[in-house]
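Figure 3 (text version): structure tokens given as input.
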């Protein structure tokens, strides 16, 4: 098998709140993402999904574990070459399409910031051509480059966020609940856009979301998080057709079914397991096969 683009082994992310209290947000999570594939990360609010994404891209310094991206370790102090490689080849689409865009900057400057920092153009005309091209790719017009974020709708702002991530031509994009703030019709447009871009550029996605139907639609493999632990992972078909862990079964049982006759008889599966159930079943290795942490 080929070497994964991203390999996460035993990732730990704790936040010390006071001398006597530490928030254990992520506890020994391991998974891998291959080039050109989409790995979906699902779980309830507070399960650690966003924290994992921010730790991988080094917005947080991981407490422990190993992260290897594009063949290089990105944990601990980074040298200049590794930091430059990481910033160019890994990008993030944030959850809120308004607060993640600077309201004082024009769209051209927001999208072009990475180009400016890494000096990826020779002339101003070339810069404008790159920005106009990426805006057209996400379904906007090159003329929109001279506007400000508040002049756009939510769906358009999220497209701008996608354009900002894509302009660096990254190998991995972390999409942190990038559709949760959008209307359902706009969600479908954005997800289809992301799939089209993936087909065109070959980038990989870490797709973090609550919406299981969207995760099923876009993901090749899925990991299920609960209270900072990865309780189950496998292909999309394995997770949805043969869920093994009780929490995964509970999560899937809560999905509404658009059929009144079937919905009336839908049975909810309760799950009351806690983080303590996983302490003795820490993940030892990553595998592309379907595995479960026993509770």
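Below: residues designed for each position.
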């Amino acid at each position: 098998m080929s070497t994964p683009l991203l390999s996460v082994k035993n990732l730990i992310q704790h936040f010390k709140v006071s001398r006597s209290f530490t928030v254990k947000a992520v506890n020994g999570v391991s998974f891998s993402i291959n080039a050109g594939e989409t790995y979906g990360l699902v779980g309830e609010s507070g399960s650690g999904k966003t924290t994992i994404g921010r730790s991988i891209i080094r917005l947080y310094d991981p407490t422990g574990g190993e992260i290897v991206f594009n063949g290089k370790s990105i944990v601990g102090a980074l040298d200049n070459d590794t930091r430059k490689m990481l910033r160019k080849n890994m990008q993030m689409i944030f959850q809120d399409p308004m607060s993640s865009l600077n309201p004082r900057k024009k769209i051209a400057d927001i999208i072009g910031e990475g180009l400016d920092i890494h000096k990826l153009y020779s002339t101003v005309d070339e810069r404008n051509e790159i920005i106009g091209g990426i805006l057209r790719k996400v379904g906007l017009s090159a003329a929109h480059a001279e506007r400000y974020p508040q002049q756009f709708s939510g769906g358009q702002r999220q497209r701008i966020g996608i354009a900002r991530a894509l302009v660096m031509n990254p190998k991995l994009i972390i999409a942190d609940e990038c559709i949760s703030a959008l209307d359902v019709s706009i969600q479908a447009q954005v997800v289809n856009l992301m799939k089209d871009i993936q087909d065109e550029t070959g980038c990989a996605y870490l797709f973090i979301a609550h919406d299981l139907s969207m995760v099923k639609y876009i993901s090749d493999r899925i990991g299920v998080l609960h209270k900072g632990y990865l309780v189950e992972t496998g292909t999309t078909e394995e997770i949805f057709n043969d869920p093994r862990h009780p929490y995964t079964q509970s999560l899937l049982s809560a999905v509404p079914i658009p059929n009144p006759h079937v919905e009336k008889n839908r049975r909810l599966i309760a799950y009351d397991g806690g983080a303590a159930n996983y302490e003795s079943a820490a993940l030892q290795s990553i595998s592309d096969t379907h595995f479960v942490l026993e509770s």
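The chain has ten helices and eleven strands.
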